[in-house]
Amino acid sequence: MSVTAAKGFQAAGIAAGIKDNGTADLALVVNTGPRRAAAGVFTSNRVKAAPVQWSEQVLKDGTLSAVVLNSGGANACTGPKGFQDTHATAEKVAEVLGVGAIDVAVCSTGLIGVLLPMDKVLKGVETAAAALSEHGGEKAAIAIKTTDTVHKTSVVTRDGWTVGGMAKGAGMLAPGLATMLVVLTTDADLDSGTLDKALRAATKVTFDRVDSDGCMSTNDTVLLLASGASGITPGHDEFAEAVRAVCDDLGQQLIRDAEGASKDIKVEVVGAASEADAVEVGRSIARNNLLKCAIHGEDPNWGRVLSAIGTTNAVFEPDRLNVAINGVWVCKNGSVGEDREKVDMRYREVHIVADLAAGSETATIWTNDLTADYVHENSAYSS
Amino acid sequence: MSVTAAKGFQAAGIAAGIKDNGTADLALVVNTGPRRAAAGVFTSNRVKAAPVQWSEQVLKDGTLSAVVLNSGGANACTGPKGFQDTHATAEKVAEVLGVGAIDVAVCSTGLIGVLLPMDKVLKGVETAAAALSEHGGEKAAIAIKTTDTVHKTSVVTRDGWTVGGMAKGAGMLAPGLATMLVVLTTDADLDSGTLDKALRAATKVTFDRVDSDGCMSTNDTVLLLASGASGITPGHDEFAEAVRAVCDDLGQQLIRDAEGASKDIKVEVVGAASEADAVEVGRSIARNNLLKCAIHGEDPNWGRVLSAIGTTNAVFEPDRLNVAINGVWVCKNGSVGEDREKVDMRYREVHIVADLAAGSETATIWTNDLTADYVHENSAYSS
């Protein structure tokens, strides 16, 4: 159901020929109203793709009528021509839908540094517009896949209103502010300021805490569109919770499909003096290649957790640190704890708890192991 | 020749039985004087191994008579017992050499979180002391290897005096201040203040700019011992240059032997507004797993260089960035440059130049590719 689960939305996903292999590569999501409120968060990478620059601009008035997304090319580092191409794509969508181009967001994903085949993109927009449907959400989710092995959708329905969404992303997963390509829709009747607040609060504790490989994309975009078609205006907290639930679910789906991964790792930092400390420590652990290799080898090598913690500026005393892996406290007071032989690592889920013993704040970062398959997939990506 | 190339030093490397496989695992380096000046730099990881804590203490007076090093166990995260073991090792060395324990530095390397077999270590110290020789430098260099495939030594001889050294390190290579285990010796007649200044200046532009896998060790130690046996006191600059040359050579040897690597990558950042900017950008590029995989696949995927630069706080404008890979400017003004097909990546050496077009400062960081062999080696390290 994805982006068409909420009332007031149509979507389509088609093969425009951008990808050589003929699979779906262009998606269109249209808000049919009555309201056309929107909010978005974008990559904090200073090298921003043309579609990110465009979409940030057109979102400034808090209004979007449509989002066009393509896989098969990121349109990043493509100079003035790349920006012209994004603009032309938005104009084409505006033309076929009868809306203004400044109400059309554009998202692209794929290889950096390559111009898009614009004849195919523009023709694809026409094809997608003709295929728009209130049941098109799933096809749209499929059309934005790159190295994703599965498409990712999520829906939460509350009392008469719904939040749904789709996401793509399997590599270059380490958001600075937002991440990947995500489009969320709701039929709740809310203004763009409320959407923005709920979206920022949700991404901060969901997508922002997914860190597959420490590599931040140039194209990360998360959009939230509200049609108001339910006629219901939920309370702020209730709405924010629903958005967070959908973001959390999509974030989990991204990690589960991370390139080459064989283990999903939940890094839970507890006992931190501040939430910022907990996030810094969690990210440091999640980005430690040696630990990620050890987890791949089902080796509860907690020394690599401690050496990662030691590189941070968080408040802690080395001789008070505790680490549990899958429930076994293998490190106590910075030294040897329970027998590491007790740790059962046969399953895909791995849970690391790092206790800083310096306070009561916590944070959880999601990552995955580092595998030969990741190396293989990313050594052959553009060739 | 290694640590015994300079006059006034003896060394030994023996198999003490710390490693199960019976290979050499304990080294002893002794300064026979007349002078016993010394300096050292240590890991900036806040989780410091017991031998690092000990050696930092005993170096405070700028004097060392001997260094004892073991592979087969890092003695890190081993609590009070680990520190007692380091102390006992220094006491044993002091006893057999007839010197004070506070003039004995201790270095350990291997798995974190495991206590050393102290009966074997103490017996090994006796065996090593009996084997001390003015020709023992190479055996000492061999005894400190862990996953190193080759031992690393370097010697620079100037007008009547010499600087020599040995190093170990093949993984967890990303120093904060110092790195790995390195012992340098000289027969120049200099005080510890001069040694310290020369050593810090050298490590800052050599070991500190080696970044194999972004993972900082708990045991990094670089020591410089001066015997004064040449009777010559070289000028500061001349001496500092010799120390830098030996450190640079050893750093290169470390990168060439990095775990699983098939490519040595020189990341040269030019046109930076400050040296700090150049180092930050170089490190960001060198730590980008996706780029390291692409280089492994001989794919000049410059988009990954730009996305890494974009995560830094350095001064630059995205549309002025230029990137060359092996001499081909594949990215010009933040966009598509010369044809990437022109890039020849068949050889082990890969040279990336990132031009920030924001000033005239430069820095070079050395790293290597990310390979399935790295994953394999590090998924099975402690098991």
Automatic annotation (TrEMBL), chains A, B:
The record marks T109, G110 as: Involved in the stabilization of negative charge on the oxyanion by the formation of the oxyanion hole. Gene3D superfamilies: ArgJ beta chain, C-terminal domain (3.10.20.340), L-amino peptidase D-ALA esterase/amidase (3.60.70.12). Pathway: Amino-acid biosynthesis; L-arginine biosynthesis; L-ornithine and N-acetyl-L-glutamate from L-glutamate and N(2)-acetyl-L-ornithine (cyclic): step 1/1; Amino-acid biosynthesis; L-arginine biosynthesis; N(2)-acetyl-L-ornithine from L-glutamate: step 1/4. The record marks A178, T179 as: Cleavage. GO terms for cellular component: cytoplasm. Substrate binds at T146, K168, T179, E259, N378, S383. GO terms for molecular function: L-glutamate N-acetyltransferase activity; L-glutamate N-acetyltransferase activity, acting on acetyl-L-ornithine as donor. Keywords: Acyltransferase, Amino-acid biosynthesis, Arginine biosynthesis, Autocatalytic cleavage, Cytoplasm, Multifunctional enzyme, Transferase. The keyword RNA-binding does not apply. It is an enzyme of class 2 (transferase). Catalyzes two activities which are involved in the cyclic version of arginine biosynthesis: the synthesis of N-acetylglutamate from glutamate and acetyl-CoA as the acetyl donor, and of ornithine by transacetylation between N(2)-acetylornithine and glutamate. NCBIfam families: ArgJ, PRK05388.1. Heterotetramer of two alpha and two beta chains. Belongs to the ArgJ family. This is Arginine biosynthesis bifunctional protein ArgJ. It comes from Streptomyces mexicanus. The lineage of its organism: Bacteria, Bacillati, Actinomycetota, Actinomycetes, Kitasatosporales.
